[in-house]
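WARN  no MSA supplied for this record, continuing single-sequence
INFO  ligand: flavin-adenine dinucleotide
INFO  echoing inputs
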Amino acid sequence: MSESSAESVSSNIIWDIARYVIVAVAAGFLIWYSFFYTPTVYVNREHAGKTMGTDYIVKVARFPENGDWKKIADEIQSTLEALDQMMSTYQSDSEVCRFNASASTEDWFSVSPETASVVQTALEISQLTEGAFDITVAPLVRHWGFGAEGNSLRTKSFEVLKSEAATLKEQTGYEKLSVQQEPPALKKAIPELTIDFSAIAKGFAVDCIAELLEKHKVADYLIEVGGEVRSKGKKSPDMDWRVGIENPLSEQFSSVQHKLDLKNQSLATSGSYRQGLQIEGRRVSHVIDPRTGLPAQIEHNANELVSAAVVAPNCTHADAWATAMFVLGEQKGIELANQHGLAVLFLLSNGDEIIEVPSKHWGE
Ligand code: FAD
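INFO  complex generated
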């Protein structure tokens, strides 16, 4: 048998073998696909509840149907309970309340890494806003009738409250608060110093839940705690997570003034329209200007600032910046927002009309 015919015989054999292998593989795949392959079915899941004196909801899209959502929901609930126990001014045995009750100015007061991290961020934003945001504002919050032990104001005139606030201001000041991360601890420079996380802890809680979901490989979610929101991925293959900024003038909670698609970002709003009091015809909001000791926006021109909304990469910053922007007001706020590349939307009311004032980066 000549060499070339021998070569063609062996290549025919190889080709025959290859054909059998391909058929066998194809058959194997078909059997696996028909009898053993079960496609992962994706579903939407939700978990809602109460925390920090408000409501929360977690929406997840494209969650594997056979995934253990109950386990994740339980983890979310226990995480929020733990954070509440650390940061609440409404629970006398919380870390924050125990620190507030401590009069020591010598010793570092041990806290959890979470509490130390929130204080760190709070102090950074206090510096950037020259004290417009200040978690040591707690005595003034109580003085103006808000927070866990809000004073009853009924008997006092605005002038009396104003002058008392001037005295109380001496018990505040972010410069009088120190934090360290290793080991996590806080120290106060004056015994009376007290802190209040109401303007930052809900945002932090949202970020903690986001971390938890990502640990469980969840890539499409929307988290909301008391109006502070964070999203990742999409609601469905062709739909982003759409959220709304409330119309402050509307009595209905659900009335939306401004809609936006939140793409892997966080949104937080601060304003006077949901928590406020009337004192001698003045609208007093629960947001206080620590620099004056007075409720924010108490003196306003024709157009009253009613809310400030901030979009930021994480919810801790969005929450704190929203409060800071409401204190600063739209003029100073826009200046600082453009300086720091912040996306802010101010809503002003002129009678029953709402005026939107966006910063340069809003909508980017
Ligand atoms: P934001 O504008 O986000 O924050 C305003 C709040 O921050 C004010 O209420 C005041 O406390 C504080 N603040 C005011 N001015 C400043 C400033 N310039 N700088 C920094 N902070 C300022 N409420 C209940 O009724 N029951 C509860 O059990 C309860 N538990 C809570 C537990 C935790 C851990 C937290 C953080 C809050 C809790 N709250 C509770 C408070 C409730 O959630 C508040 O209504 C809410 O935090 C106010 O948020 P907001 O978005 O309306 O206002």
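Residues 3-36 form the longest helix (34 residues).
INFO  checksum written, moving to next record
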